[in-house]
Each structure stands twice: as structure tokens, then as C-alpha cells.
Design brief:
Helix content is 69%, strand content 0%.
Amino acid sequence: MLIQIARFEFRYLLRNSLLWLTFAFTFAMVFFSMNIQDWELGSEGGLVRNAAYATLRNTLMVSLMFMFVTTSFVANAVIRDDETGYGPIIRSTPITKREYIFGRFLGAFAVAAVCMLAVPLGTLLGSAMPWADPANLGPTRITDHLYAYFVIGLPNLLAHSAIFFALATITRSMMATYLGVISLVAAFFSLDGALDRPHLQTAIAVAEPFAARAVKDAVRYWTIPERNTLLPDLTGALLYNRLLWLGVSLLCLGIAYAVYRFADRGMSKRERKQQKLAQRQPVDAPFAAAATAVLPAPRHGSRWRGAVWRGRPASSPPRRC
């Protein structure tokens, strides 16, 4: 059932216009940066536009930008049913909490992962256009895109998807979740400059959530030809960074599972007290008598059949004379 729920969520979000607008914008941004002379995503002297380091840099930048888009997917997945009133119906089915929580998250995360494919597709197709300047491009290497997608892009998506999925589960509010996104971005840029100290480089490279500092430190002393063709080894601070935030992602998903109440909210103490007081209040005698009066049994004899044939309503028996 978990796979079925994830598949349903995936198909549901594929109809979301925000997904295709984000995909189109990201694809166009990367596509034209490969073949338009004055359009480049982060210029570095001597670095070709489809360099190995440029591919990592573009994936990092897009994964940071995707925080707002991914949050709308994962937060909507856990809040939508309660906002539309469909939640009690879901909870009355044999679906378990584990299947519901993780199925919804996997479906939303899969949509974000598909959207991230705009980066390698834009790079590959943009560099293959006939009007692209060969002097600005190097050889196409699929391994660069696989490394950037699976080592940088997907772990970053998983990290902030899990964090804001847990926040949406706790707060049950899209507004609070988006405030959390803004707070994380502001803290990231503030602390990145404030903690830029030589003795803290390794600690920051490990703790920074998007691996930008870890990648930068890994290629700090590389020459331009090395940045064009080589990828950093998945060791040291970069490896520890990826493992750390994979653990944080799993922890946040565990928190979301623990705090989500897979049941309708019961009455509060105040509501139960009001209900008891209402039950104790006396009911007016005429209304009580009317409520307890026995209605006459309907009669379906010969008079009723005659009234039906004469055109009187069949639902009302004939009146007594």
C-alpha cells in the first residue's frame, strides 16, 4: 500500500502547474547558459561552461533554489487532506500511519527529484546546440552529471524535504513552514560569512547543509584544467557532510512519524463540559411531549388504494371523515 500511496501522490503532483513552471525555468536557465555568449551561471576565468566543477556548482545553486518549490510539495502532501476535509475518510480505511506518512513523502520527493533533472538535461542539450561556441565547451561526460545529481542534488533535496515535511507535520500550517524556509536561508547566508574562520573550515564544511563549503574546500587548490575535468573524491569532509545530513533527514522523518496523529481530534475538556451542561438543561414540556409522541401507523387499506387511482398522492393516506 505504501507504493500505491506514493504513486498516487506522484501522479497528483504531476498535475501541479508549479512543477512544470519550475522545470521549464530551470531548464531554460541552464540550457541558455551553455550557448548564449552573455549568459553564464557563475563565470570563472578559463573554466568551460560544462566543466565538472561548473556542473557541481549549478546543481548546488538549483538545489538551494528548490527549497521553496520542494517545501510546497512535501508540506502540501501532509496538510492537504485535513484542509479539504478528506482526512477522516483516509483514516477510516485500512491504511496505516506508516504507509500514509512515508507514502506521501516519497511521492512528493520523487516529483522534486524529477524536477531536478532539468539541470543535467539543460546542460547536455544546451551544449549540443549548433550555435554554441566550441571554445566555451569541453567534452561531454555523463559521470559529471551522475556525480552531481546523486552526490549533491538528491541528498540536498532529501535534507530540506525531510526538514520541512517534519515542520509541516508539527505545525499543520503552510505559513509556518514557509517561515521556516526563510529562516533557514537567512541563517545559512548569515552564518556562512560570520563563521568564515580558518580554524573552523573543516567543521563548517561538515555541518553546512548543502555541501557547498565541502565542495569548495575540496577544489580550493585545483588548477583550471583540473576543475574542468576532475571531480572531488567522496572522502573527508564531503563524505561526512553527506552522511550527517542523510542522518538528519531520517531523524526528521522519524519525528514526523512520531508527532503525526493518525486519528481525528477528540473533544477538549471545555467541549466535554459544555456537552454535559447541555444534557442537564431541562427541555420544554411541549417540545418534550412532541419528541416522545408516537406517530400513527400508516394505513394502506382499500381507501388508500382508491385514493391512488383517483390521482391523490400515494404517499399520504386518505383523511378520516
